[in-house]
Design a protein that fits this description.
Serine Threonine Protein Phosphatase 5, Tetratricopeptide repeat; two-stranded antiparallel sheet; 11 helices; 2 domains; 232 residues; mainly alpha
Length: 232
C-alpha cells in the first residue's frame, strides 16, 4: 500500500513538474504564442468573413451576368455572347471570365468563351479559354477536352488535337461522348498518316460501342485505314 502511495506521489510530482515547465515555457514565450493564436483566429475568421461578404455576393453577381450571356449563346449569337452587348448592359463571357475568374460562374464562362471563339474562328483564343476551364463533371470534362482538341486541330496542331481526343474518349467511357472522340482521334491520326493509332481508335468503336451511331459506318473507316497501312 505504501509502495502504491509512493508511486502516486511520484506520478503527481512528475505531472506537476511537467505543468510547471509548460507554464514556464508559456510565460517566457507568451508574446510570440499570443501573436500566433491571434493570427490563426484572424485567418479563420477572415476566411469566413471573406467568403460571406466577398465571395458569396461576387458569385451571385457573376451568375446574374452569365445568365444574360447564356441567353445570347442559346440564340447562336456567339460574337455577342462572347463580347457582350454594351447598349443592353450585357457582359460577354470573355469579360465575365476575366472579372469573375475566382467564381464558379467565372470558371464556366471560360468554357462558353472557348466555344464562342471556336464558332467565330478565333482558335488561339479558344485554346486559351478552354485551358483556363476546369471541372470534375463526368460529361462536361470530356466535352471540354474534346473541344480543346478541336481548337488545336483547327489551329493546325493536329498531333496535339489527336492526343486530346484520345484523352477525352478515355475520361468517361460512355456511349455518348467516347465513340465521338475515338472517331475524331482516328481521323486526325489518318491525317498524320499514323495508321496504327487510327486503326486502334476505330477498332475500339467497333468492339466496345456496338450501339453507338459512330459504329454504323466504322467498318468503312477500318477498311480504308487498313488499306492505307498495307500500302505504306
Amino acid at each position: 500500500m505504501t509502495e502504491q502511495k509512493n508511486d502516486n506521489l511520484d506520478l503527481d510530482a512528475a505531472l506537476a513538474n511537467t505543468t510547471h515547465k509548460v507554464e514556464d515555457f508559456y510565460q517566457k514565450n507568451k508574446k510570440n504564442i499570443n501573436i500566433i493564436l491571434i493570427t490563426i483566429i484572424a485567418v479563420v475568421g477572415g476566411y469566413i468573413g471573406v467568403k460571406k461578404f466577398y465571395f458569396e455576393p461576387l458569385e451571385f453577381e457573376a451568375q446574374n451576368e452569365i445568365f444574360k450571356a447564356q441567353q445570347l449563346f442559346e440564340k447562336d449569337s456567339f460574337a455577342l455572347a462572347l463580347k457582350g452587348d454594351e447598349k443592353k448592359g450585357i457582359k460577354g463571357f470573355e469579360a465575365i471570365a476575366d472579372e469573375y475568374g475566382s467564381t464558379k460562374a467565372g470558371n464556366l464562362a471560360h468554357y462558353y468563351a472557348g466555344i464562342c471563339n471556336l464558332r467565330t474562328g478565333n482558335f488561339a483564343a479558344a485554346i486559351e479559354m478552354l485551358e483556363g476551364f476546369s471541372t470534375n463533371n463526368d460529361l462536361v470534362g470530356p466535352l471540354a477536352t474534346g473541344l480543346l482538341g478541336d481548337a488545336y486541330v483547327e489551329s493546325g496542331d493536329i498531333e496535339k488535337g489527336a492526343g486530346l481526343y484520345m484523352k477525352a474518349a478515355r475520361m468517361n467511357k460512355n456511349k455518348l461522348t467516347a465513340p465521338v472522340f475515338y472517331k475524331k482521334a482516328g481521323i486526325a491520326y489518318e491525317e498524320l498518316k499514323n495508321y496504327d493509332d487510327a486503326l486502334s481508335a476505330y477498332t475500339v468503336i467497333k468492339n466496345d460501342y456496338p450501339e453507338a451511331q459512330e459504329n454504323s459506318d466504322i467498318e468503312k473507316y477500318i477498311a480504308r485505314v487498313t488499306s492505307l497501312k498495307e500500302g505504306k
